[in-house]
Input
Amino acid sequence: MACRDFFRLAMPQMKRAIFVTATDTGVGKTLLTALLAGFLQGQGTRVAALKPICSGGRDDARQLRAALENALPLDEINPWHFRAPIAPLLAARRENRQVTLPPVLAHIRAVRQNFDLTLVEGAGGLLSPLGTGFDSRDLLLALDAIPILVAPNQLGVVNHILLTLEALPARFRRRTTVVLMARPRTNSATASNAELLHRLAVRNVCHLPWLGQTPSPLAMLRTPKVRQSLAALVHSVLPAGGGRDFGGRRGG
Output
């Protein structure tokens, strides 16, 4: 089935959210979200990419905006931003500001009404505090989003992946796709992590190849192996006939 035909089958009647989280900070959430946004947009999908909350600058949000070819204003992609390069909860406190879950949810739900699919990137790992009384897990669950868990493909990552998955309710754990981000050097652990995860009943595992220290998402999208990896990821996250019930209700 051609990619465009697949998306025509998978996308109708859906205004779904995909939540991109990670085992840690700095492991490639923004790169993956930007690549997915550019790839899906190239397939004719109406896609939004949001990083609602960030600290330490807005470079991540600008990268998402560039991937969408500036289709969304920066303040819509990233309404809450703080200067200090620390957890958003603490960065907000330094500026005498506060972020709570209801307005973040309201913003995402308003944006998603205009798109077939909305990518939402968290900040830090799954349990890193985003604001007062909530973290990425709380936001993911409130959105009833499909989780993508980004992790560096290196020694020790299986433990981090399993701990993060364990923090999710079973229904969300079952529909999570793990993306192993390649590192510049491979070893026996990196070659075997995916197989080990499968043996441990982690069903959906995808890979993104290593293409340099500071890759440009737009340049990477012209690379066949990256496009193949992204197509496999989308098929994992949104199987053909993607309106199916992932063990629960449709996204709200």
About this structure: The two ends are 29 Å apart (CA to CA). Residues 3-235 form a domain with the Rossmann fold fold (CATH 3.40.50.300). The chain has one domain: 3-235.
